Amino acid sequence: MMGRAWRAWSHWRRSRPFWGGLLVLVGAAEILVTEVVPLRVILHLGPEGIAGYLLPIVMLVCGFLLWFNPEQRLFYSILSVLLSLGTWVTSNLGGFILGMVLGVVGSSLAFGWQVPKRTTEKSVPH
Amino acid sequence: MADGNPPMDEGRIRWRRAGAMLAAAAAAGAVLVVLTAQGILAAQFAISGVPFTVTSTRLDGTGFEQFGFFDSMTPNSPNASNCLGAATANQGNCGGTVLVAVSAIKSATLSDLCQSVNLGGTNLKITAGGGGRPVQATTLVVDSDLLTGDATFNNIAIGQDASTFTEVPGVTGPPGDFGQQADSVTITNLRQDNFATTAAAFSLPGLTLTFSDTGC
Predict the structure, then answer these.
(1) Where are the domains of chain A?
(2) Which of A20, A6, A9 shows the shortest CA–CA distance to A64?
(3) Residues of A in Cβ contact (< 8 Å) with B20
(4) What is the 8-class DSSP label of residue A41?
């Protein structure tokens, strides 16, 4: 049973840009953490503060989409690399660099992830 | 995988392809850092809730407002009783609310800016604005529990109701709140212990970001 579950997990992992998506998720979460986690004080956010949250949240969405819609990984990875770079300007210097670097590396890994081309058979006809 | 798409084949990372993207992104990132360091690009800080210290040898601002305010903690906040990080003078005011002075400046220049955040064990320290290239900030709004320095105000109105302030667009206090506003302000040897801040835009010429044992 365990081996079966592990194999299913391995297949799930290998059939999508898992590590790229994971790094994007961790990076986005880290940026959000630098902005919200202590939460000791309720703050009034001006319009300038919105982008600071918006970019890492969209990054987070990109990370999940890389996992659950890997067919469109090219679009998501390019979007999340731009968002990661954007957080330098909008969100605590990209979560004090760390989150930005994780997002950029993760997006690049997802961008580089490819399924080998099948030359022999494409699909079995019914 | 119940999304209706055919199951993906297993794939792998093409390192050359990933590396090309990474190189392009690293180049773009380097440009951003350099532009920020030269003060062309304004970086936004939204450090919320973490107390941090800001010092500057000279602050010149146009459009100044200041009023007292209570910042509320989240309900059942674990910090409500111990007031971790608040200045000593504020220890008596803990228990869910903290008395702060809100200072708002419409447009400010700061020389030799130093900002440090205590991360527990180490300090993240950002310095900028040295060598005659001051830091520029717009709509700077800080909630401080300690503010020291030598201040000069122009056209100051002390005791005005904070809800009627006009010097900084979009920033007013609650009705009936004591406050003061001025057309311009100059503070030398500024030191602030900021309990919290709302977002503010800075351009940071000569940016240095280091981890340091000592704060500002």
Answers:
(1) 16-112
(2) A20
(3) 112
(4) S
Q: Do B46 and A96 touch (CB under 8 A)?
A: no
Q: What angle do CA B77, B79, B85 make, to 5 degrees?
A: 145
Q: What are the backbone angles phi and psi of residue B13, rounded to the nearest 5°? A: -85, 125
A35 burial level (CB within 10 Å; 0-12, 13-18, 19+): buried
**Which of A:10-39 have CB within 8 Å of B?**
11-12, 14-17, 19-20, 34-39
* Å between B61 CA and nearest CA of chain A: 20
Contact A41 B195 (CB under 8 A): yes
Helix, strand or coil, per DSSP, at residue A121 = coil
Per residue of chain A (126 residues), give pLDDT as tens. Answer: 678 999 999 999 999 999 999 999 999 999 888 776 544 443 444 445 677 788 999 999 999 999 999 999 999 999 999 999 999 888 878 888 899 999 999 999 999 999 887 655 455 555
Search chain A and give the residue with CA nearest B125.
Answer: A96
- Torsion B187-B128-B108-A92 (CA) sign: negative
Instruction: Provide the residue ranges of all domains of chain B, joining segments of one domain with +.
Output: 42-212
ipTM: 0.81
